[in-house]
Amino acid sequence: xxxxxxxxxxxxxxxxxxxxxxxxxxxxxxxxxxxxxxxxxxxxxxxxxxxxxxxxxxxxxxxxxxxxxxxxxxxxxxxxxxxxxxxxxxxxxxxxxxxxxxxxxxxxxxxxxxxxxxxxxxxxxxxxxxxxxxxxxxxxxxxxxxxxxxxxxxxxxxxxxxxxxxxxxxxxxxxxxxxxxxxxxxxxxx
Length: 190
Description:
Helix content: over 70%
Number of domains: 2
Mean pLDDT: 88
Largest sheet: none
Shape: globular
Radius of gyration: 20 Å
Low-confidence stretches: none
Number of helices: 9
Strand content: under 5%
Order of helices and strands: HHHHHHHHH
């Protein structure tokens, strides 16, 4: 199946796509798909950063970005995403095994790669990237439900509970850091 048809099915017919994903053997097709979408994503980020370096990440002042730095960043981003996909899929596979999911690593890899489709297609667009992240979460839940034959509720809890725990940890760390900064400032630190 060509990448554009996959994108359309994943975004608009995810139940159908993940139900029939077992016909795809191994990770070759999903890996090629990931490479294609990652190239698109990194090129779009590179264009935005090169044209409007302070608009994309306005809180962080960026030095002037030369073409050689931009090419280097694109290559690093591409390699990082590809290598990271195998690591993330491995962690996801272990997590699913904890919940008695009975599939192979290659199935988990496909689940992960196809579920991040919205992030790779729309993740370079400020603000829209948040919606893409949420839709990617929804897709991994749908994929887990369909591929692993896990109830929708349980598939949701597999991902939402750790997400809530992480958010709570970040909030706790934020308040801890803010408290430390207030104490430091009160002692004449700034």
